[in-house]
Amino acid sequence: MPTPSPAVPRAARRARVAVSTVFFVNAVLYANLVPRLPEIKDRLGLSNAELGTAIAAMPLGALAAGLLAPALIQRLGSAKVASFGLVLLAATVACLPLAPAWVALAGLMLVAGALDSVIDVAQNAHGFRVQRAYGRSIVNAFHGLWSVGAVVGGLLGTAAAGLGVPLPVHLAVTGGVFAVVAVATYRFMLPGPEDAERTAPAEPAPGAGAPRRRPSGRTLLPLAALGGLAACAAFVEDAGSSWGALYLRGEVGTDAATAGLAFVALSVAMTVGRLTGDRAVDRFGQRRVALVGGAGIAAGMGLALAVPSVTTTLVGFAAAGLGVATLVPAVMHTADELPGLPHGVGLTVVSWLLRVGFLVSPTVVGLVADATSLRVGLLGVVLAGLTVLALGRFLLDAPAAHDDDAAAGPGTPPPTAGPATAPF
């Protein structure tokens, strides 16, 4: 992570490390299980469809519980929800090998998905608090560390399987260790109310009471646009994980070993883009970065589909991964700054719609591919890139810090001077 400016408070620097750890642990916990799912399948004697249905309970749980996040954050605070939510998630994942039947397995997956959705909103909400304290973009690095955590978790699970560690022991030990780490992060999070780092509004007249924040068309239209951008991000990311290998094998004609490189190209490019994206956002503004990313998605995947070969496909998926890298953090940040909404509501809505996108996109591409071809189905990724170009104007230009533009809403240019914003 970049070295913070001396002007950044020590509490914010410590909170940045804590939030980074939360993102990392959140990714590790489930990724740690993935390489060992075949063992659960064999122990319970499940068919592929039964295992797939049980896993599908996770996004269903996320959709069911995701909208509860604002109430929990307002009651308990984002720090507590994120840190102690990870403890509950670790316990739930550790119980999965103990499930006696499919019903129990699906139920635990449902709970894991519900917890993950609430934790996701809380960790991002606290990450934006830290970003406001820093006065510059840092949230992309959090998402980059989530990607790193997913890789580390997969490697841990693979190593445990290779060493023959019993699955219940493996998940109990890793769950216990990461639960302790999650609890330890809580004391380093930022104290106080969720809006403590925002510019304080003018004091109301005595006896007037606190001003009410009411959604209006100026709030709901940008929120709908941000939801569309979130769905586009899901469409692009899912293309690599669900269809990249099938495209290389079926449309390009590669072998099985080469087919997996499409997903690798997208994932590596997206991780690199997230780890380096904060500097680009500070220099050019997150709106401009997102617009360039949308153009890269459309052009890269357009090339891969127009000229199907191993090289063009890998270049296309890498361009899509790089183009989408900063989009989700930018959408979440803009939604978190929307005026007229209680704290956490905008962030929760776009997070929920992002999960809807992940649930719907494989079905849409699959139906189009069955009716025509996978090349036609993946044109949806090109359309997603063009949609980012059309809706990207709703994104804020730069991170909101200690300035009066924090509540101005999407499309308001940041100040041109002052230490809280970078020129672009």
Give structural notes.
This protein starts with 9 loop residues before the first helix and ends in a 33-residue tail after the last helix. The protein has 2 domains: 10-186, Growth Hormone, Chain: A (Up-down Bundle), CATH 1.20.1250.20; 219-407, Growth Hormone, Chain: A (Up-down Bundle), CATH 1.20.1250. The chain has helices spanning 10-31, 37-44, 48-65, 69-76, 78-95, 102-134, 139-162, 167-186, 217-252, 256-259, 261-284, 286-306, 310-324, 327-336, 345-371, 374-377, 379-391. With 424 residues, it is mostly helical. Residues 201-213 and 400-424 have low confidence and may be disordered. The protein has 17 helices and no strands. Helix content is 72%, strand content 0%. α1 packs antiparallel against α6, α3 crosses α6 (102-134) and α4 crosses α6.
How many domains, in number, for the residues? Answer: 2
**Poorly predicted runs:** 201-213, 400-424
What is the helix content? over 70%
* Share of residues in strands: under 5%
Q: In total, how many beta strands? A: 0
Order of helical and strand elements:
HHHHHHHHHHHHHHHHH
CATH superfamily of the largest domain: MFS general substrate transporter like domains
Transmembrane segments: 15-31, 51-69, 81-99, 143-163, 169-189, 219-236, 256-277, 289-307, 344-368, 374-396
InterPro entries: MFS, MFS_dom, MFS_trans_sf, MFS_Transporter
Domain Major facilitator superfamily (MFS) profile: 220-424
Subcellular location: Cell membrane
